[in-house]
Amino acid sequence: MKKTMIAGAVIASLTMATAVSAKEGNYVGFGLSQQGLDTGFFDADMMTLDGKVGTYFNENFSGELRLGLGVQDDTVFGTDVDIDNYYGAYVRFGAPVTDGFYPYAIAGYTNTKVGYSGGGSESESDFSYGLGADMAITNDVDFTVEYMRYLDKDAGELDGIGVGFKFKF
To answer: How far is CA 53 from the centre of its chain?
Structure first.
């Protein structure tokens, strides 16, 4: 699934027409993320449906709130493992390279709840960081690609590769 998402992101970014991409105002977005949990004892690959709402403070800084819900789990040693949900607050720093390409670094705080088929679950919170890019499709719509390290704790690491769309208003 990761290969499919990466291939789709590359193809989409190569075929997009350059569009003027004003970085002001507010935005909402949605997408899918392939999440990888590595505990040192087991690895699990899961998928989340992600939503975000944000605002540009200026051309280089924006802030956003995100919520993700698990849509695909993984089975490890006969136990289903899934991300029940995650939420967080983040600050993005970026700079337009062209009118239609805006790479950025992102950092913030994430709370994630992982569930297990036996009825148990655990929540973890941590500093999060990543890299991404917005690629303008039109003046008001961007295609987004992003890598995030959501959690980096002794109990494990949670990484995500996501693609989505952002709508400016």
So the answer is: 12
Q: Which residue(s) pair with 80 in the sheet?
A: 75
DSSP 79: E
Residue 13 burial (C-beta neighbours within 10 Å; 0-12, 13-18, 19+): middle
Pick the closest to residue 151 from 64, 66, 38 (CA basis).
Answer: 38
- Measured CA to CA, the distance from residue 28 to residue 40 in angstroms comes to 35
d(CA 51, CA 164): 9
Are 78 and 43 spatial neighbours (Cβ–Cβ below 8 Å)? no
Q: What is the pTM (predicted TM-score) of this model?
A: 0.82
The predicted-structure confidence for 40-79, as pLDDT tens digits, reads as follows 888 999 999 999 999 999 999 999 999 999 999 989 988 8
Residue for token pair 């709370």: 111
Domain that holds residue 78: 2-168
The total of other beta-carbon atoms located within 10 Å of residue 58's CB is 8
The CATH number that applies at residue 135 is 2.40.160.20
Reduced to 3 states, what is the DSSP secondary structure of residue 8? helix
Number of domains making up the chain: 1
